[in-house]
Design brief:
352 residues; flat; 7% strand; disordered C terminus
Length: 352
């Protein structure tokens, strides 16, 4: 629009110049007057055109300024949001880095624990204790219990006979397991498998000899392996060892299997408590029935007493009736005698 107005302005200026050049030629007065009128009209149109151009320029400048202002505002908002998002992401990254550092420290501590046999044994005992405490009531287990042979077991499940108390001992053959999983060839794998088998077989033998006591404990015991991966590897790689442990009545269990076993033990304890409660209820019912029979005898005696009392009352009522009847007869006899014994009253004129 601005370009059209500018082109029109230049066109008017060209026409004015052309007419001026023509005015230099000899013309009559009328033509000159017409030329002056046209020039005046062109000047007026030029002024109007300049005004329109100025208005258009002002409007364009205003719209451009508004667009620039809005664009800058939008850009500022986007920049602010981007910076806010970056700050939030940096906070998340910082927090994640903190967690990773803490996790790294925990992993390092766990590696230190697992690298030491004594600490590794304590780790297994702590895990065993946590599982047992989560699944059973306080009176259902005893940690570091001393048996009749003087041996101390990691955990003793206090079950009623049968089956009786069940011993659980925690073992963690981590070194042999690591050798098996890191074996580079078949020869190393076979050697590591034999080492793991001998290690676990020794644990099974020790548990069977120390913690299965006839007449004191159950006829079986549990070898707790604190790692599911170790437990799974033994079941997959050493099936004959698993069969041998069953024959020795020493059953291996990982954390998941032990939790299932503990839930079964809890159900057994609940059934035992219900059976015990049923026995107590039966005893109380027997005592109550004796009281009922005694009450029945006493009610019968009381009914006899009531019957005798009713008979006595009836006899008393009969005697009372007879006495009243005789009294009435006596009254009649006395009245009759009085009438007969009364003297005759002489008749007078007063009575008609």
């Amino acid at each position: 629009m601005e370009l059209i107005l500018i082109a029109g302005l230049f066109g008017l200026i060209g026409l004015a110049v052309m007419f001026l050049r023509r005015g230099k030629q000899p013309e009559n007065g009328q033509n000159f007057a017409e030329l002056r009128g046209q020039l005046a009209q062109m000047a007026s149109q030029s002024n109007e055109l300049q005004r329109l151009i100025a208005e258009q320029m002002a409007q364009s400048e205003g719209r451009l300024g508004n667009r620039l202002e809005q664009s800058l505002r939008d850009q500022n908002d986007r920049t602010t949001k981007s910076l806010t998002g970056m700050a939030e992401k940096l906070a998340v990254i910082t927090e994640a880095n903190t967690h990773i550092s803490a996790l790294t420290n925990q992993v390092t501590q766990l590696q230190n624990i697992l690298s030491n046999k004594q600490a590794r044994g304590s780790f297994g005992e702590v895990q065993l204790e946590n599982l047992v405490r989560d699944a059973l009531p306080e009176n259902a287990f005893d940690f570091q219990a001393t048996l009749g042979n003087g041996r101390r077991v990691d955990c003793l499940l206090c079950l009623p006979n049968p089956p009786g108390p069940i011993a659980i001992d925690s073992k963690f053959p981590l070194e042999a397991y690591r050798r098996l999983t890191s074996a580079a060839n078949d020869a190393e794998r076979d050697a590591a498998k034999r080492l793991l088998e001998n290690d676990v077989k020794k644990h099974i033998k020790d548990i069977a000899e120390k913690y299965i006591i006839p007449g004191e404990t159950a006829e079986s015991a549990i070898l707790f392996l604190p790692s599911e991966s170790v437990y799974a590897e033994i079941n997959i790689q050493l099936p004959k060892l698993v069969e041998a442990s069953r024959k020795a009545r020493v059953y291996m269990a990982g954390p998941d299997n032990l939790m299932l076993l503990l839930h079964t033990v809890r159900a057994i304890l609940r059934d035992a408590r219900m059976h015990e409660a049923a026995g107590l209820i039966q005893t109380q019912v027997d005592l109550m029935m004796k009281d009922v029979h005694r009450l029945e005898d006493r009610v019968a005696k009381l009914a006899t007493h009531f019957s005798q009392a009713e008979k006595d009352v009836s006899d008393i009522q009969t005697s009372t009736g007879k006495i009243i009847s005789r009294g009435n007869k006596i009254d009649e006899i006395e009245v009759l005698d009085a009438d007969e014994a009364a003297p005759a009253v002489p008749k007078t004129g007063l009575i008609s």
